[in-house]
């Protein structure tokens, strides 16, 4: 079926088909690490309070080494170095009267009528500003936290409780998006109990409160606020702007499309104090533009319209941070998520472009062609661009134009014109993102940590593709940071401490940004991993520090090509030959599981007495599985050396050598008798392996000096003997040496 026909039938599917054809639809992580593995070997730490849910607000206090957490009825102070260490808790429940009122209003007393802490900001050296839902009665307070981590203070400042309307949402299901600039709080929330009056609101501080025009769908149309940032526009603080990221129902969409939700970036000037005669205490500099994250296609674009999170990656230039965002699809046809990156210059360009205009209800949205009044709406009153010193001085035509034209005609497109990374039909949705810029041997790389709705974190690196600024995302790791598959609700990153903090409904987790040793024990594995945090130091895969002048630091993030970097590297763990026995007509299983999920396995075979090495065919008697090679109905001529290699990026790395001996019936019978003389299953390591080994191999104690692993030859359905202990530990099964062998020494054995 051609793409054109598919498009004619179901557009959405045709686009999915185009995505799949592009090969960009679903990536497999190189490493997938379970919760248990992360906890046991990679220092995953968790925190939870008893009978407390909804860890949603995370606040990093790098200077004092603290992580503040807002949850149901609690504010908690944790150590950034180890969140499992003793926590300081502040219980802050909603008063009984409010809970009863909330219950009378038809809300659930046990799950909704609680004080869910939604917002935490550092207010000054000694206090936090905290706001919660207060059982549908939003409330804010200052929380005294003291100067130092060790100080035993964490309490509500006396008399500081105040109305949190317009700061915290009422409904625990809603998010709070806000930024504290100086003493002023800029927030995007629903400011009423029914959740219908949405506002972008400035409160606290000395100046009068300013908000958006209420109940005007051109300004805000059932928005869901995601993030708010304060970004300077020039050296002059009078030009500073506050940017709001949200999604809302599109006013500009054709009615045929129904309730179409789109993503937006909105701006206001920090020094906006509202109009003099109209728009009194309302924003006069509010503008918004559509944020597009889509994959271009011949039949049309595939849109990811549901903005989920925004991370602002600072750059040397304070005015031009990069905006890393995650989106999901709002389509019912297919489920997908994408990362799109925007530059501030593209955002500003949209606000300097044409205004969207609609002449009347029966007209189309068009770019406004008429005269735009001066000063151009959206510009801040400042000496940089004009002579106005306050928005109250703006002429009436400016105020009128601003009220009627909040929407820009042009959209903001992502850098490179397409998503940096996307996953389609992966079974999860991206919900959160944080980014770290890392100095590697061959330049700077952005490492993305993406939280999902299934309790996992994806680690993705952005590498240049073709000519800059085009980049593509490579999925390095998938980390199951929560025991359950809870939705990741919040993330914070500490580049300084190399730690990631992840919150969900059920817990908070802390994990290091790197796990270099988990990439493997060979130079090639370390190199193929393309992890900017890690490098090969000549003996192990370890943390890379660009400042450390070390000679043997091998790293190639851009190409991940071990053939040049690791050639002549003699430190590769020596491949030991293991012995496996099978019986004619029976089956045997040769284990080989590469660490990398992106590698595929190549089995080769060298028959006894032959020099030629051939590829093991994929045919009736052999079956290649993800865990190894299954050989059925064994024949004597299957005896020989089997070698398994992991092939990745065209680079082949031998993982395991197995010498298979296929025994005939008579030999097998002797084996059976040996087993009989060892009646009950011996405790501990299965000693009978060794005994049998010595039976079939006279003087078996010496010989190869290599590792032996004996595999029985019964049908697989019967209980297979387990391999000896050392081999079962961990995933790296390559080099196993039964330790007790040498102690017992050689023993005279029966001969065949
Ligand atoms: C973190 O703190 C907990 C509780 O004190 C302790 O059991 C654990 O070993 C610590 N972990 C690390 C990596 O320091
Ligand atoms: C911080 O703010 C709180 C609340 O306004 C105030 O009581 C306290 O004195 C302030 N502390 C400092 C060090 O300014
Ligand atoms: C598998 O290994 C054989 C022998 O080394 C080699 O000739 C062949 O190209 C390899 N196959 C793949 C797919 O790498």
Automatic annotation (TrEMBL):
Record Gene3D superfamilies: Immunoglobulins (2.60.40.10), ligand-binding face of the semaphorins, domain 2 (3.30.1680.10), YVTN repeat-like/Quinoprotein amine dehydrogenase (2.130.10.10)
SUPFAM superfamilies listed in its UniProt record: Immunoglobulin, Plexin repeat, Sema domain
Domain Sema positions: 30-513
GO biological process per UniProt: axon guidance; neural crest cell migration; positive regulation of cell migration; semaphorin-plexin signaling pathway
Chain positions covered by the region annotation Disordered: 700-752
Keywords: Disulfide bond, Glycoprotein, Immunoglobulin domain, Secreted, Signal
Start-end of Basic and acidic residues biased regions: 736-746
Record SMART domains: IG (SM00409), PSI (SM00423), Sema (SM00630)
Main location: secreted
Domain Ig-like: 573-646
This protein's encoding gene: SEMA3B
Molecular function via GO: chemorepellent activity; semaphorin receptor binding
Protein localization: Secreted
Signal peptide region: 1-25
Family from the record: Belongs to the semaphorin family.
Family matches, as Pfam families: ig (PF00047), Sema (PF01403)
Keyword Signal part of the UniProt annotation: yes
Cross-referenced PANTHER family: SEMAPHORIN (PTHR11036), SEMAPHORIN-3B (PTHR11036:SF37)
Record's GO cellular component terms: extracellular region; plasma membrane
Origin: domain of life: Eukaryota
Name this protein carries in UniProt: Semaphorin-3B
Annotated source species: Chrysochloris asiatica
